[in-house]
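Pasting two entries for a bug report.
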Amino acid sequence: MKKLLFVFLILNVLTPWIQATELWEASYGKLLKKYVYHDGVDYQLWKNNPQDMEELNKLVESLALKTTVTREPHTRLAYLINTYNILVLKGVLDMYPVKSVRDIAPEFGFFHEKRFIFEGTPVSLNHVEKDLLLKTFKDPHIHFAVNCASISCPPLLNEPYTASKVMIQLESVTRTFLEQNPEAVRLEKNRYLLSSLFSWYAADFATQGSVLNFINRYRKQPLPPNAKIEYLDYNWNLNQSSVRK
């Protein structure tokens, strides 16, 4: 009886939070389906829709609240990835039209400045990515899920990350980027040009053996062990979709 009562009390506490999370994910999911394509985000269409701009503002306001978010790892991981991506979208759309996130603030201030409130505390995008996500979860797949609104960044997934699917989603976006995207791997004149992500975050990928080992896990045609490696210049131009053009 005591065990049943304990289970009931836990469910009674968690159910409102789960329901709120599902509503939050549904709202975010509708926006993603509407404006996110394989080649980027239709910022212009989104900016011109006051109702959807307000919907995004409500999501950002909900992130600012001091809420008791479950610490269950998969739930927290999905929530933080979504948080980062929502805040990037908010930051770009507030200033749109811009050609690049670098135009929003000097010296990459878009990422360094505490421009947002998250769980009651002023935060920068770098804090969410590097401290809350990477230092906590130590999973290099995160680099392919967080989107910096730039052409060279792994594309934004057009659905929310969810607790039940987050590990599958991380594997999927990693494989898609490394297998299909020219901003990830290019063969040019007997050398392989890799995304600068593999240079900037080499230590993160080293936990998987090496950068090359990590990449080859996701490619049908693996890079040879003696491959000559160089790194691509990062294209910080806005990942504006051209699907409607």
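Entry 2 (this is the one that rendered wrong in the viewer):
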Amino acid sequence: MKDVFISDLKSLVSGKVIIIGWVKNQRSFGKLKFIDLEDSTGEIQIVLEQLSLSIPKGSAIKVAGALKVQENDESKVEIIAEAVELISPFLLDTISPLPRSDAASLELTGVDNLLSNRHLYICNERSQTILRFRHKFFRTMHTWFDKHGFVEINAPILTEALLYEESTAFPVDYFGTPVFLTQCVGFYLEACVLSFEKVYNFGPSFRAEPSHGRRHLAEYYHIKAEIAHVNLRDLMNFVQKLISEVCAELIEVAGDEIDKLNAPLLTLDLTPPYPEISYKEAIKTLNKRGFSIQVGQSLPPEAEESLSHDFDKPFFIVGLPSAVEPFPYVIDPNDPELTLTADLHAPRGFGEILGIAEKIHRKSDLENRAIAKRLSEEQRRRLEWYFNLRDAACVPHGGIGMGVERTIRWLLGLTHVRDAIPFPRLFNRIPRP
């Protein structure tokens, strides 16, 4: 097992070492050869006499030698190689640019090339850095939920229970019974909230929507939470605390990644309270700008982007239309055209990152809402257990749902959500690799 990594060498100034890594770059000056060697923790320069051994860029090698402080930079060390072993050559000479090239080189190639060869380009430093940030994002979120008394629930991916339209679900044959890949685990969290009162889930969701937008993936990760005895205002306060505290922690634990990516997270104002605008106010504002949006319609992405430039912080659009929101969401008692919901949007055009909703806890209200939303008999049959929860001493409760890739895209200033996930699944593109 490899037990010495390049990051371990940074604190040393001398001594014999053996290190394994990949050749990122190499150059020759006279009788000397210089190799930039990298592993999962960093990069170091190797100095050696010219070899008869051919080492293609990208190859895996093992180097034995002596550490020495670099003459032109005393803050760095290099290895004066005494022996070099070629472990595995990089033989894909048709791949261009090479996977371990600088990020600037990758930006010059086509998106199709990068996606088709994602299994190779995932070792690029920029991809590594984004995915390491993603890892720390998940870890920080888990720690935050645990600290605040939440229980993690592992919900099923195969389900009959759909929150959104069946037309946007991926069907699966389950031993002869038609089921779907989950669109949202909220139904299952609602069952568990009657036991634990505060529950959450990290997991994939699937939406078969024909969209080429920068915020859309066919498979993406959701952070869902459900809480008993809350109203919309409680949930909005909860979300502001979650976002502000998690991002403050990320600045501490993911500082290296933030610096490497020159990410905007350091400059974001995430101090609560966050601004709010009602759905109907938003429509009035947007229609004055030339949009044509009727009450009851969703705001199109272009309208959301226009609105986002009015705010320097994340902001809430409050009271979304009952005509488009899912049937379990509570109707606003003061305005039956609206629901007790809110979406949190990122500023600077990054769009919605999180949704909030009070859930109906009385069975009669849920039945009426199902009729209003025209649930079919088959849909009703699939959700019988969900309706039964309302006879099991159900209490007022509500939930949040965060799109992980959308949030990471915003915090890191990425162009597209596809960069925020290891292997993106996109509309109209075969899921390969």
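Dev reply: Rendering is fixed now. As a check, the viewer should reflect this: The first strand starts at residue 16 and ends at 29.
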